[in-house]
Amino acid sequence: MLKIASTLKNQQGSVIVIATIVLALLAIIGISATNMSSNEVQVSTNAMLHNIAFYAADSGIEAARGFLNAIKIEDAANWENLLQVNEFTWNGVQVDTLNGVLDAEGGRTVGPATFTLTVADNDDLDGNDQIDTDDTVLLTSTATYRNATATIETSVRGAGEAYAQEHYNAGSSGDAVSESVAATANMRW
Fold first, then answer.
1. Is the N or the C terminus of the chain less surrounded, counting Cβ atoms within 10 Å?
2. Is 1's pLDDT higher than 70?
3. CA triplet 83, 85, 67: central angle to 5 degrees?
4. Which residues fall within 8 angstroms of residue 54, CB to CB, at 6 or more apart?
5. Is 113 helix (H, G, I), strand (E, B) or coil?
6. Which candidate, 19, 119, 31, 26, places its Cα nearest to that of 79?
7. Would you state the pLDDT for residue 71?
């Protein structure tokens, strides 16, 4: 009995056990912090890549809107040529897609990202998706950068006037305004 009591009073080596437990806890906390910071870096990188792709897709929409209107001004039948993928001449170059038009004008690259464009007829109730009867088409811009992809789709109205499409007013109202009477007159509703 005396030997057991003396063993309980002897605390030699307990510091090593406590130090080992504290060291193990600190190691676990350090590994967790490293994993969390690594995940945060990956999330912020993915967000940055997506933002680059999104802004490139948005740039594609803006470039395409301008070219669609210029195409409509030059020859209104060219919208149907784009919908039917028929060749037509744009600035001396044979093209059959909106991508071809932009490539003829200098390309579809915005910074490090690249966008592609598609034009489709909206549901203008004519039963034919290759003929535009209401001066409105659907424009889709898809941009890619590394492993990020962003797609924006919008409708574009063209009346054959210089910049007749609707756009957002710079006065932070957020309301779409029309720059021409012709664009307002073409509304179906």
1. C
2. no
3. 65
4. 143, 150, 152
5. strand
6. 119
7. 83
